[in-house]
Specification:
With 589 residues, the chain is α+β, with helices and mostly antiparallel strands. It folds into three domains: 8-202, Aldehyde Ferredoxin Oxidoreductase,  A, domain 1 (4-Layer Sandwich), CATH 3.60.9.10; 238-404, Orthogonal Bundle (Aldehyde Ferredoxin Oxidoreductase Protein, subunit A, domain 2), CATH 1.10.569.10; 419-586, Aldehyde Ferredoxin Oxidoreductase Protein, subunit A, domain 3. The protein is built from 25 helices and 17 strands. A six-stranded mixed β-sheet has the order 2-1-6-3-4-5. A hairpin with a 3-residue loop joins strand 10 and strand 11 (180-182). Helix 1 packs across helix 2 and helix 2 crosses helix 19.
Length: 589
């Protein structure tokens, strides 16, 4: 079939051998690529008893059928079992790496085993090489990428880990194209456990498309739809993702001091508007992206990319900090050390509240800005209290007898939206297959931004239907390996049109939704077999019992029980969240 390169490279680091796999047209049609195909392949290679940091665990890098052909198609997904949560997990990154990887003639790479010493992979038109990486071990990510380009090709794209991944930080990221991150779930720690420092790729093969003329017309249509939408055509282009700071704060759901409050009085000081005024150096874009939401920035000490909305929150309101320069430099440090900014800042905020409650052994006050960057470094290198923070907020709070102070779901730290202000987003957090994450279903669109339509954010009516719908659509987009911002501007029919132009496969909206449901249910089935159940589809008690006391979301709590049973029924799961046999049969799982 067109669109796919038709081959996946499987590498065993134990033996240093490789083989080429053809997964077959049936799996491609059922799971597409990226997240969906990666999850399917993972469940064929590993079992729910496979330990995340063991040599037996598979680490899968996959592109999608649209990679390299349409807008935002430079993305790739990393699929494995998360050491942070224990769930099956995929983590997505932008930049150019996905498109460059596909040009080598492979749709992806499966890595198993563990090298006896540090190595990196060099993938090019001639094949694959496993190269010694002892001299790179210990390097930060920017330097690693530059050194590998010197050793391979100056136009190579490199995905690598930093010291955090090498040292097993449970939320270590994989970084590519300098500052793009496969951040969530600790995929960098899995990579480090295999003594794999990096994957470098450069190729010259082009993707063969089914209907080049039709694709040109669709490409023009997508550009028009992006420009027409106020979010993708204006807000993200002008202010980047941090345009959300003032918006979410104005709705009273900008988490402050470990989600104790929903209003940060100094939000303006860390907003997208303030970034544009104080530190913006230019815009940056991923592969074939007309939105260009990335921000090139410069402080008095350093320059780099970001911070994004989630990051400026994590090192801002979450820890009581209103110093934009500190938040920005903490972001730079995470990028170079290879850390997920959401989990890093969230866990520091947890430690600060533990100190406030009198149970943490080291002084750590809200807004203690002079220590922030140092704490990030301590986490990456496992120094002092950084060694404890490196385990994530759930394990940290449990150790000090205050599990309720960890703002997480299934072990993954929550992002920058207080769920008490948006009932559908709350349900999406609770039922996310990879843990506390807004990217499994971004309900901020309809509940806050009015995209595609504005819904009552405090009502629970219809929210189970909305969440399952968004989860399934998101699974499809992740499996096409496109940027999720396109969901704001495009309907499912347009994604189907792109797939038809590139691959020749024509799918109705209903058939695409069935693929999304299949992917989501397969993930759930794996997690259930790994021991997850209804009790894990839960939010921290704070959101269920403690009302917000100020702002437009005051006097609100999450009404999870009103939505969860309905959600399970819609999914075809029993009342404990286990997929029914007839559901698995219907979805051909």
């Amino acid at each position: 079939m067109k669109g796919w390169m038709g081959k996946i490279l499987k590498i065993d680091l134990n033996s240093g051998t490789s083989e080429t796999l053809d997964v077959g047209d049936d799996l491609r049609k059922k799971y597409l690529g990226g997240r969906g195909l990666g999850v399917k392949l993972y469940t064929q290679l590993c079992t729910p008893s496979t330990k995340p940091m063991s040599p037996e665990n598979a680490l899968i890098f996959l592109t999608g059928p649209l990679t390299g052909t349409v807008q935002t198609s430079g993305r790739y997904q990393v699929i494995s079992r998360s050491p942070l949560t224990g769930t099956i997990c995929d983590s997505s990154s932008g930049g150019n790496f996905g498109a460059v990887l596909k040009k080598t003639g492979f749709d992806g790479i499966i890595v198993t085993g563990k090298a006896s010493k540090p190595v990196y992979l060099w993938l090019n038109d001639s094949g694959i090489e496993i190269r010694e990486a002892g001299s790179l071990w210990g390097m930060k990510t920017h330097e690693t990428q530059e050194k590998i380009k010197e050793q391979t090709h100056n136009k190579a794209s490199v995905a690598c880990i930093g010291p955090a991944g090498e040292n097993g930080v449970l939320y270590a990221a994989i970084m590519n194209d300098n500052d793009r991150a496969a951040g969530r779930g600790g995929m960098g720690a899995v990579m480090g456990s295999k003594n794999l420092k990096a994957i470098a790729a450069f190729g010259t093969r082009e993707v063969d498309v089914h209907d080049p003329e039709g694709l040109k017309q669709t490409y023009a249509l997508v550009n028009k739809l992006i420009d027409k939408n106020p979010v993708t055509g204006k807000s993200l282009q002008v202010l980047g993702t941090s345009v959300l700071v003032n918006v979410i704060n104005a709705h009273g759901m900008f988490p402050t001091e470990n989600f104790k409050r929903g209003v940060f009085n100094d939000a303006e000081g860390i907003s997208g508007e303030k970034i544009a005024e104080m530190i913006l150096h230019g815009r940056s874009a991923c592969y074939k992206c007309p939105i260009a939401c990335g921000r090139s920035t410069r402080t008095s000490k350093k320059e780099g990319e970001g911070p994004e909305y989630e990051t400026v929150w994590a090192f801002g309101a979450q820890i009581g900090n209103n110093d934009l320069q500190v938040a920005t430099e903490a972001n730079y440090a995470c990028n170079e050390l290879g850390l997920d900014t959401i989990s890093t800042g969230n866990t520091i905020g947890c430690a600060m509240e533990l100190w406030e409650k009198g149970v943490f052994p080291e002084s750590l006050d809200w807004g203690e800005t002079q220590r922030v960057v140092g704490l990030v470094e301590d986490i990456a290198y496992g120094r002092g209290i950084g060694k404890e923070l490196a385990l994530g907020s759930k394990r940290l709070a449990e150790k000090y007898g205050k599990p309720g102070l960890a703002m997480q779901v299934k072990g993954m730290e929550l992002p920058a939206y207080d769920p008490r202000g948006a009932q559908a987003q709350a349900l999406a957090f609770a039922t996310s297959n990879r843990g506390g994450c807004h990217m499994r279903a971004y309900l901020i669109g309809p509940e806050i931004l009015g995209q595609p339509v504005l819904m009552d954010r405090f009502s629970t009516a219809g929210k189970a239907e909305l969440v399952s719908l968004f989860q399934d659509i998101s699974a499809v987009v992740d499996s096409l390996s496109l940027c999720r911002f396109l969901q704001i501007a495009l309907g499912l029919d347009t994604f189907g049109l792109m797939l038809k132009n590139v691959t020749g496969i024509e799918l109705t909206d209903e058939e695409l939704m069935q693929i999304g449901k299949r992917i989501y249910t397969l993930e759930r089935d794996f997690n259930v077999k790994a021991g997850f159940c209804r009790q894990d589809d839960m939010l921290p008690p704070r959101f269920l019992t403690e009302e917000l006391d100020e702002g437009p979301s005051r006097n609100r709590v999450v009404k999870l029980d009103e939505m969860l049973d309905r959600y399970y029924a819609l999914r075809g799961w029993d009342n404990q969240g286990n997929p029914l046999e007839e559901t698995l049969t219907e979805l051909e799982i």
